[in-house]
Amino acid sequence: MAQEDHSGGPSWDNLPSVILQEIFSYLSHESRIKASQVCRNWRYTLFHPSFWRKISFVFKDEDSVSWVRFMADCFALSVHEATIRWDISSRRYIDCMSETYNLLKKLSYNRQLRKLFLEFSCNNYDYSFDNEDDSSYYFPISLTECVVKIIETSNHLEALSLGCSEELTANASIILEPLRLHHAKHLTHLSLASIKDDPEYYDLYELDNSIFNSFIRLSILTLDYEYVSDTLLKALDNGCMQRLVIHVHGWKDYPGTTNRAWQVFVQKNPQCELRLNLIHSYRGVKVLDSDILCAAMPLTHLKVLFCEGVNIRALLRLSMWYSHTLKSLTWIDSIDRKQYMPATLDPNDPNSPDPLVLAAWKCTKLTKIVFLGHKYYQENLLAIARLRGSTLQVLAFAKSDITSENESWHKTESITHEIREIMGLHWMPLSDSDLPMVILDPFKGDSREVITPLVLRDQK
After folding, report:
1. CATH topology of domain 16-51
2. Given 90, 167, 377, 400, which is the most exposed site by the fewest CB atoms within 10 A?
């Protein structure tokens, strides 16, 4: 580019920085990146802190670690919304853990931080050192202490997600107290739910649910089921609640909730969605209908993930109790090759209506059904398609799970064609190559690869 235009005035690459910043402020992030390629001066403008208020620090490989380090040096003291995301293999765990501590330490000096979202892809916090070189790494403070320091420094923290970290959620009471002291009037989003490393054996910690009375603007809360009680529902009476997410793991002597408490909660928070996630809850799924679900729950999303069974009575509850609220149903298990009969067929009453068909008929807001790992009649799929049509945005089943009452090949092809005609791109019969390995074989895959992305979507 020429240094001067024909009038002798300044050239584009010598525009004052304040003018360049004004120009860049009208551009999208992608357009700023393209504009930054014009010259060095424009590239410097790209990295003005005002354009990096929201940053995702992603740990994936060696290059991403270098980029995180650079971005942290530039913007850790000025960023307003920070997401720290892990997408790493266990062999890179130590390097990324070290960089994560460095990043959190820098963020702990940022008084302008408004939102912090942690998104861990694994729960391997009790990392066992495989060789002597690993043991040279020493972290002087814990993750919990890092988070508490950030809470105490920030002037106006609005959102905090612990990323389903079992270490952090075990210390929820330690984290909640400084949140109450410093951000009771600001906090709108708090994610405390976890993914248990061992869903059958884990420690229970005391949590004073009355502390939630202090957060007068709280609108999104995620929590493990052991902390959910009538006392909690009563504490969430601010009228601002938009989403309550509950994770159910092992099944122990939990306080649970009453239908009356849910009725009062809904009266206080009429706009609130309840999202219920059962994660490796082998016993929880068996009592889902009797001990967990209540008729007054504002249930909008139900995920049952790798619980090794289908509770037909619970599925029937969906159409009976949540016909005006339920929006999505996700039920995923590893495929049982020995299963021949559909999982939704009641052996005690084989002529009873299929619960998924009933849900499709009765639940007027239902837009998503994902049902993987269990046999299902093709004829019932057709019934669902006819009932919901284009209002059902996702209908996902595994091809190998779809069976038929009719042995006629032509009849089967006719049904397949009609479902495709009705659903179009919303119909998703998944081949084995489309499925995660853990669904095909529980011994050859990691269920966390499926669970973590699904539940982290509820955190934001």
Report:
1. Monooxygenase (1.20.1280)
2. 90
